[in-house]
Amino acid sequence: PPHHNSVLQPPVSTHPGPEFWCSIAYFEQDVQVGEIFKVPSSCPTVVVDGYVDPSGGARFCLGQLSNVQRCAASERA
């Protein structure tokens, strides 16, 4: 007889999954900086860093976000 862990389970739902599984908002103090970054379901993991590569897909780079009201504490951080 076949092993019972080889039996395929039916899907939990037949509805397609969401286009984006995660939304990230970046704040300095209490002010949101930049747009909300949406992570597509095709990217199961996301990296948030301070580099300046164009954001997109699985990487959200904060280095290129400008904030004209950026305070010294945020600049140091």
Low-confidence sequence ranges: none
Give the strand order of the largest sheet, numbering strands 1, 2, ... along the chain: 1-4
Helix amount: under 10%
Structural domain count: 1
Q: Nearest-angstrom radius of gyration?
A: 19 Å
Query: What structural class is derived from the secondary structure elements?
Result: mainly beta
Average of per-residue pLDDT values: 86
Order of helices and strands: EEEEEEH
Approximately what portion of the residues adopt beta-strand conformation? 15-25%
Distance between the termini: 61 Å
Shape: elongated
**Largest sheet features:** 2 strands, antiparallel
The quaternary state of the protein chains shown equals single chain
Total strands: the figure is 6
Number of helices: 1
How would you characterize this protein structure?
The structure is a single chain. The protein is mostly beta strands. It has one domain (20-76). The chain has one helix and six strands; from the N terminus they run ββββββα. It has one helix at residues 72-76, and strands at residues 20-24, 27-28, 31-32, 37-40, 47-49, 59-61. Strands 1-4 form a two-stranded antiparallel sheet. Strands 2-3 form a two-stranded antiparallel sheet. A hairpin with a 2-residue loop joins β2 and β3 (31-32). The protein is elongated, with a radius of gyration of 19 Å. The termini are far apart. The mean pLDDT is 86. Residues 21-77 form the MH2 domain. This is SMAD4 protein. Pfam families: MH2 (PF03166).
